[in-house]
Specification:
A hairpin with a 4-residue loop joins strand 2 and strand 3. The N terminus and C terminus are likely disordered. By secondary structure, the protein is mainly α. The protein has a single domain, classed as 2-Layer Sandwich (Zincin-like). A 3-stranded mixed sheet has the order 1-3-2, with helices on one face. It is built from 4 helices and 3 strands.
C-alpha cells in the first residue's frame, strides 16, 4: 500500500480516514458480507485505456490508483469497484462487463453515485479538503 506517503491535510484527515468512514456506508448499501483485498497504487499500468481502478475477480482484489487525486474521487472509484465485487458475487460479471454502456458498468456508475452522495452528506469535510497525495 501507498498510504505511508500521504500528505496530511489541514484538519488532520487523511485518505485512510476517508476510507474508514466510507467502508461502512458501502457495506451497508451493497449488503456485503465480506470485502475483497485492497491495493492502493500510484498508478495502474500504462495501457492505451488508463484506469483509476480495477476489480480482479481471480484474486478477489480491488486496485485503486491514488496519485494526484482527491480523496472523494478515490472513494468514488472504490464504490464503483465494490459494485463490481458485488456483481461478481451474484454471478453477473462476464468478459464484456467492463465495456462502456454495459449493464454492469452502468450499474457500477449509478451505485457509486448513490454511495458517494450518502458519504458526502454524512461527511461533508471530505468535499472541502484540498488533499493531494504525494506523486
Amino acid at each position: 500500500m501507498y498510504i505511508t506517503e500521504l500528505v496530511e491535510i489541514e484538519n488532520k484527515a487523511t485518505l485512510v480516514d476517508a476510507l474508514r468512514d466510507f467502508l461502512p456506508i458501502a457495506v451497508s448499501h451493497l449488503k456485503l458480507n465480506a470485502l475483497p483485498k485492497f491495493n492502493l497504487e500510484k498508478t495502474i499500468g500504462t495501457s492505451e485505456k488508463p484506469t483509476f481502478g480495477h476489480y480482479d475477480p481471480a484474486n478477489n482484489a480491488i486496485t485503486i490508483a491514488i496519485a494526484n487525486r482527491q480523496p472523494v474521487d478515490i472513494i468514488r472509484t472504490l464504490a464503483h469497484e465494490l459494485t463490481h465485487f458485488k456483481q461478481e458475487s451474484e454471478g453477473k460479471l462476464h468478459p464484456q462487463s467492463g465495456e462502456t454502456g454495459s449493464n454492469e458498468e452502468d450499474e457500477a456508475n449509478a451505485e457509486a453515485g448513490v454511495m458517494l452522495r450518502e458519504f458526502s452528506q454524512k461527511y461533508p469535510k471530505y468535499l472541502t479538503l484540498d488533499a493531494v497525495l504525494v506523486p
